[in-house]
Design goal:
Layout: H1 27-63, H2 67-114, H3 119-124, H4 133-173, E1 175-180, E2 183-188, H5 190-210, H6 213-236, H7 238-244, H8 247-299, H9 305-327, H10 329-350, E3 357-361, E4 367-375, E5 381-384, E6 388-390, E7 395-400, H11 406-414, E8 420-426, E9 431-434, E10 444-445, H12 446-451, H13 461-470, E11 483-484, H14 486-489, H15 492-506, E12 510-514, H16 522-535, E13 540-544, E14 556-561, E15 564-569, H17 570-575
Parallel strand pairs: 3-8, 7-13, 7-14, 9-12, 12-13
Antiparallel strand pairs: 1-2, 4-5, 4-6, 4-8, 10-11, 14-15
This protein binds adenosine-5'-triphosphate.
Membrane topology: Multi-pass membrane protein
Main location: membrane
Protein name: ABC transporter
């Protein structure tokens, strides 16, 4: 499904999407890995200090022409380099493993939510608003774990570096003392405070001018997903489009998607440009800032070359770690928009499905319909049904003009339609619904296609062979074990025969058929209905159908109209 809409407002709760894994049954292993990765990154900060000291000793020795000392310093250097390399490799490996485990855990949870309570159906049929759930499950979850770990771990490293060098900056920077309007002020650690203040100021300016980048990124992912979904549509419906000669119409559709992408991309570029101008201005002016802050020391004649080089080094390190937050502003914006999309998906999934029509599982073999009113999602009435009881083994046909609500009645019986009121009661455990276009899973064996949704080992080979022969699909007998793109191979009529073969295998007590033989000629429809009534003589049958030839297989006709429904029984129905 594709929708065009603006992103929901940012909420702090969007960040909660990150938490469930860290509270799951895998949390201890996850925390252990995270702890290991963080520990290794602390080693990195320590190693940087060690290499710094080593440099000083080595170059002091070199410029003092102490060749022996230089040679003696090489083995520890090589040892430390080997250790650093090993730790670097292990750190990357652990991060990848953690990221994959997190992604798999999240994907399993999302899939469970998506594939339960008919969520996949609600999302696809416009009953809920969350576009392209496939992209959220397949891409966004993976991106979320990668970005969160990368940004989170880099942030920890930046904070560690910041703390280490801020202490130096605070200590060696000293206190700024000045007199203003007769008052003397003392600002301890003013170099550190100045650095932090300047960075915060830059962040505020960035949020003001680059903030809309989050929304623009959100929309960009949304439009990209629409383009992908459109291309999938073309793949799925290639034959229909080719028959209609629909290339121009498709091109027009895609040029609309591209126009949306282009227009939003211009916003992304504009906001990124603004963010980059501010970031780069901060980069360029940082050294000036230090010089300005050092003026009091110059005027007081307390700035030596040694002190300057120390302050400069600490300032650079503190600034670069603070700057990490500024430089990664756009990445944080991307992560925020991913979290927003996932959080929106979670809200929709958690939102209770409108179910004003009560569907009860009854022990009685009858199908009972009480006070049933079917409505459209906008609340308007489709049709109203009188109280009805369909006794076990009875066969009813549902007729009515197109759009009156025949399929909607079956959806309500299947628990897929909640708009309206009333109650339906039947033995849901032993019922089977056959839609007009049966589902044919691709990439599986024909045996699996036939047994769906049960597993292929549910029936023996003789049973599969028998039903294939019965529904006149004997030509496929040699292909029972073949794995193929079956939906591309079967004709619509063959798909419908296959769906009846499924019913004959499963032998349900109640069968609901929604125009399940509409693609077949009269002779084949008659063959399939004869099979159903002779091989499942005690099954209750409810058929939505248009063809008059099928009336003789049913004992009653339920005719739906917008004003209500009427039931005609017995010979009257058959001869009508
Ligand atoms: N997801 C939906 N959102 C809004 N309206 C819907 C939705 N699904 C169905 N409808 C509307 O409900 C009405 C009844 O549809 P339904 O499929 O039940 O008709 P039908 O009687 O089976 O028609 P046909 O004989 O043509 O198959 C139609 O007007 C249809 O547009």
């Amino acid at each position: 499904m594709q929708t065009t809409k603006t992103p929901p407002p940012h909420r702090l709760s969007d960040w909660k999407v990150i938490l469930p894994y860290w509270r799951s049954e895998e949390k201890w292993r996850a925390f252990a890995m995270l702890g290991g990765i963080i520990g290794l990154s602390f080693f990195y900060v320590r190693a940087a200090v060690w290499f710094g000291k080593w440099n000083q000793s080595f170059f002091d020795a070199m410029f003092a022409f102490r060749a022996q000392d230089c040679l003696a310093l090489l083995p520890p250097y090589l040892l430390m380099s080997a250790l650093s390399t090993a730790i670097y490799v292990v750190q990357i490996y652990l991060t990848q493993v953690l990221s994959m485990r997190w992604r798999l855990w999240n994907t399993r949870v999302y899939l469970r939510q998506y594939l339960s309570h008919e969520t996949y159906y609600r999302l696809e049929h416009g009953l809920e608003q969350a576009d392209n759930p496939d992209q959220r499950i397949a891409d966004d979850l993976s991106q979320m774990t990668i970005w969160t770990l990368r940004l989170g771990l880099d942030a920890i490293q930046a904070i560690t570096t910041l703390i280490s060098f801020s202490i130096v900056l605070w200590d060696v920077g000293g206190t700024l003392t000045f007199t203003w309007h007769g008052h003397t002020f003392h600002i301890p650690g003013y170099l550190f405070l100045g650095t932090v203040l300047a960075t915060l100021l830059t962040s505020l300016v960035l949020e003001r001018f680059g903030g809309p980048l989050v929304n623009a990124n959100y929309r960009q992912q949304h439009y990209d997903a629409d383009l992908r979904a459109g291309l999938m549509d073309v793949r799925r419906n290639s034959e229909q489009i080719a028959f209609y000669g629909g290339e121009d119409a498709e091109n027009l559709r895609f040029s609309r998607y591209l126009a949306q992408i282009a227009s939003n991309w211009r916003s992304v570029v504009a906001y990124t440009w603004r963010a980059n101008v501010i970031t780069s201005f901060f980069h360029q002016t940082a050294s000036c800032l230090l010089w300005v802050m050092l003026i009091p020391k110059v005027l007081a004649h307390t700035l030596t070359i040694g002190l300057y080089s120390r302050i400069n080094a600490a300032f650079m390190q503190a600034r670069s770690s603070l700057q990490w937050f500024i430089d990664n502003y756009t990445d944080l914006a991307t992560l925020r928009s991913i979290l927003q999309r996932l959080s929106e998906f979670e809200r929709v999934v958690a939102h209770p499905f409108e179910k004003s029509i009560l569907r009860q599982t009854g022990a009685s073999p009858d199908v009972r319909i009480e006070n049933l009113v079917l409505r459209r999602p906008d609340g308007s009435v489709l049709t109203t049904l009188p109280d009805l009881t369909l006794h076990a083994g009875e066969r009813w046909m549902i007729c009515g003009a197109s759009g009156v609500g025949k399929s909607t009645l079956l959806r309500a019986l299947a628990g897929l339609w909640g708009y309206g009121s009333g109650t339906v009661t039947f033995d849901t455990q032993h019922a089977m619904f056959v839609p007009q276009r049966p589902y044919v899973p691709d990439g599986t064996s024909l045996r699996q296609v036939l047994s769906y949704p049960a597993t292929p080992d549910q029936y023996d080979t003789e049973a599969y062979e028998a039903v294939l022969k019965q529904v006149a699909l004997a030509a496929y007998l040699p292909k029972l074990e073949d794995e193929a793109e079956w939906s591309q191979i079967f004709s619509p009529g063959e798909e419908q025969r296959l769906a009846i073969a499924r019913v004959l295998l499963a032998r349900p007590q109640i069968v609901f058929l929604d125009e399940a033989t509409s693609a077949l000629d009269e002779a084949q429809e008659t063959l399939l209905y004869t099979l159903l009534v002779t091989l499942l003589p005690h099954a209750t049958l409810v058929s939505v159908a248009h063809h008059a030839a099928l009336r003789r297989f049913h004992q009653a006709i339920l005719t739906l109209t917008p004003e209500g429904a009427t039931l005609t029984r017995g010979t009257e129905a058959a001869s009508d």
